[in-house]
Amino acid sequence: MTFANSIKLFVDAVTLRKYFGVEYVENLGDFATQFNEFFLGFIPAMVLNNKSEMQKDAMVLSLSNSDSEDPNRIYCFAVKRNPEKKSDGALGKKSPYNDNKTRIRSPSLYAILGVDTNLSFRYSTEPSGAKSDEEIIANWTKNLNS
Predict the structure, then answer these.
(1) 8-43 pLDDT tens trace
(2) What are residue 77's phi and psi, to 5 degrees?
(3) Does the CA dihedral 7-53-50-137 come out positive or negative?
(4) Distance (Å, rounded) from C-alpha 14 to C-alpha 67?
(5) Distance CA 96, CA 50 (A)
(6) Neighbouring-strand partners of residue 75
(7) What gap in Å lies between CA 54 and CA 71, rounded to an integer?
(8) Which of 25, 56, 57, 141 is the most exposed place for a label (fewest CB within 10 A)?
(9) Cα–Cα dist 133/136, whole Å
(10) Phi, psi of 67 (to 5 degrees)
(11) How many beta carbons lie within 10 A of that of residue 37, not counting itself?
(12) How crowded is the C-beta side of 112, counted as CA atoms within 13 Å?
C-alpha cells in the first residue's frame, strides 16, 4: 500500500518499478517523476462531491493512518470546544483528521460548525450513538447556555 495525493504517489522509484514490472536498465532516468507526470493524466481535475459510502470509508481509513483515533469511530454524536493549552492559554485546534473526517462524514454539520477551528467533533463506533445535526447543534447550544 502507498499513499497518494492529487499530484503524486508517495513511493520510492525501486518499489514503483518492481510493482509495475519495469526492468532495471542503466540510465533509466528519473522514473518516479516520469511516472507521476504520466499518472497525473488519469487523475480527475475536479473533486467529485457525490462519493459512495465505500469511498467515504476508504477516505476515513486512509486519514486514520496518521491519527491516533480509532478508524471505526464514524458516527458523530457531539461537538466540543477544545481546552486551553497550558503553554500559552490559546484554545486547542481540531486535528486535520477530525476536520477532514467531519467534512466527509457530516458535510451539513461541518458547514455550520466546522469553520470554528477550536471545535472538535466527537465520534463513536456505535451506530446507535449517532445524533442528527439538529441534535448535535441543540446540545451544543444548550451546553453554551449552561
Answers:
(1) 677 777 787 788 777 777 766 677 777 777 777 777
(2) -130, -10
(3) negative
(4) 28
(5) 21
(6) 124
(7) 14
(8) 25
(9) 5
(10) -135, 155
(11) 12
(12) 12
